């Protein structure tokens, strides 16, 4: 479990620091993201947007402790995330969102397979 928590922290750092080799390694080929706006992105579209800086994370970190549900081959993480980003040529946006990530153990390696963010309306 500690390994997956560290992987999640590394995943968030890789997105903010634009470290695409780490991001590619952590996200499964069939990874899917549901954004706060309800859009679905594949690994290719999501990481492609990050790589091209159409989606630029300026800050992405847990704002609470990370809750964990675990079984031998599946770990689900849930936390409140503080996110600051820029999308395309738009101004910076800051939001607070519940974030849920699903990691699966595949061939002995943990990999992120699903993420969903739900924005908190203040």
From TrEMBL:
Protein name: DUF4440 domain-containing protein
Domain annotation DUF4440: ranges: 4-111
InterPro entries: DUF4440 (IPR027843), NTF2-like_dom_sf (IPR032710)
Gene3D superfamilies: 3.10.450.50
Organism: Micromonospora auratinigra
Top-level taxonomic group: Bacteria
């Amino acid at each position: 479990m500690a390994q997956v928590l560290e992987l999640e922290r590394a995943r968030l750092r890789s997105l903010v620091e634009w470290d695409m080799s780490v991001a590619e390694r952590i996200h499964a080929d069939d990874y899917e993201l549901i954004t706060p706006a309800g859009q679905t992105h594949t690994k290719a579209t999501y990481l492609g947007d990050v790589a091209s800086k159409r989606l630029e994370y300026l800050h992405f970190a847990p704002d609470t402790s990370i809750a964990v549900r675990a079984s031998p081959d599946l770990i689900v993480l849930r936390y409140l995330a503080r996110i600051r980003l820029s999308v395309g040529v738009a101004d910076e946006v800051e939001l607070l969102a519940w974030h849920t990530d699903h990691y699966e153990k595949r061939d002995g390696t943990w990999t992120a397979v699903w993420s969903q963010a739900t924005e908190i309306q203040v």
